[in-house]
Design goal:
Blueprint: H1 6-18, H2 21-28, H3 32-46, E1 51-54, E2 57-60, H4 62-83, E3 94-100, H5 102-107, H6 109-119, E4 123-129, H7 134-140, E5 145-148, E6 157-165, E7 167-172, H8 184-189, E8 191-195, H9 202-212, E9 218-223, H10 229-234, E10 240-243, H11 244-251, E11 256-259, E12 268-275, H12 282-294, E13 299-301
Parallel strand pairs: 3-4, 3-5, 8-9
Antiparallel strand pairs: 1-2, 5-12, 6-12, 6-13, 7-10, 7-11
Helix pairs in contact: 1-2, 1-3, 1-4, 2-3
Length: about 325
């Protein structure tokens, strides 16, 4: 049997993440033919097809799923041994993948990209939405960090609070029936727009709190994201209850005004999350620190341990 070539491991890892041989080859700076040859040799070595072509790209076999955790750790250790512990962002050329909500895209991405343009021009960002699969992708290293409200993450993840968030109501500046304050009666009577957000829990906080007050709004419009919500509110007579940070950013772009809610709604924390396996990786640590610096009031908490009974994640000293 032939010896295992270390280059095969890199091809396997990139194909596993990208679900594409051509994209993996581009990432590694090699031809698609060379990547296919390496993958075929790895298939022969393990006696398994490893990947199967589908309409969604090449998907891993159960054998590939089992191998990936081991081979990715081998690759990471070899890369760390080759490069040492130093990471120079000014000279580095690599991509980071961040999963976030559309709120994160609005609040973080412009700041982050402007910072990278000045201090780390060789760094690129791939952004994807938080989904039910994000925890697994963080664990596998397919995603470097997640930014948002993700209370479902427990054992094996570090977290760092970026800022606290509360809710406000936004209305058009020219709304004919809304004054400087918002009463409970007006809030219940007026029509609202709302976001059918998935992947995070801040909408659950809002919906539960309003239901507890007997104040579920009269929703006239559901939209799939926050990206056009402020524009819609600014050009109609709809109201929307949104996170304050989003409202403050959009107030300078759209003809909207911010109004205090007539109901008490709990605050929540927006955090960045990463898996314990990558806690000491120099490049990932640098990225997390940059994000924390761009968002004030960052406080780190250690990873939760597997729990047999409910408990809380404590803060790091």
């Amino acid at each position: 049997m032939a010896s295992l070539d270390l280059d095969w491991i890199a091809v396997f890892d990139e194909v596993y993440k990208a679900r594409s041989v051509s994209r993996a080859a581009d990432k590694l700076g090699m031809t698609q033919g060379a990547a296919s040859t390496a993958l075929n040799r790895l298939r022969a070595y393990y006696g398994d097809p490893l990947f199967t072509r589908t309409a969604r790209g090449v998907l891993p076999t159960p054998r590939a799923d089992a191998l990936h955790k081991v081979l990715r750790e081998v690759r990471a250790m070899l890369e760390q041994a080759r490069t040492g512990s130093a990471f120079d962002p000014a000279k580095a050329k690599r991509s980071f993948r961040i999963c976030m909500t559309d709120l994160g895209e609005i609040a973080l991405l412009p700041r982050l990209l402007n910072y990278l343009q000045r201090h780390a021009p060789g760094i690129d960002i791939d952004a994807e939405r938080i989904t039910a699969d994000s925890a697994r992708r963080l664990e596998e290293g397919a995603v470097d960090v997640a930014v948002g409200y993700m209370p479902q993450l427990e054992a094996g993840f570090y977290q760092r609070t970026l800022f606290e968030q509360d809710f406000v109501c936004i209305a058009s500046r020219s709304h004919p029936r809304i004054g400087k304050t918002l009463s409970k009666a007006v809030y219940r009577r007026e029509r609202h727009a709302t976001v059918a957000a998935t992947g995070t829990g801040h909408t659950v906080i809002l919906d539960k709190a309003l239901a507890g007050h007997g104040a579920s709004p009269r929703v006239a419009l559901h939209v799939p994201s926050f990206l056009a919500l402020a524009q819609i509110v600014g050009e109609t007579e709809l109201l929307a209850t949104v996170p304050r940070h989003y409202a403050a950013v959009m107030q300078s772009r759209e003809p909207i005004r911010l109004l205090a809610l007539p109901y008490e709604i709990p605050r929540y924390q927006v955090k960045q999350h990463w898996h314990v396996r990558y806690h000491r990786d120099p490049a990932n640590a640098w990225l997390r620190q940059v994000i924390a610096d761009l968002m004030p009031s960052a406080v780190m908490s250690p990873p939760a341990m597997p729990r047999r009974s409910p408990g809380k994640i404590g803060k790091a000293a």
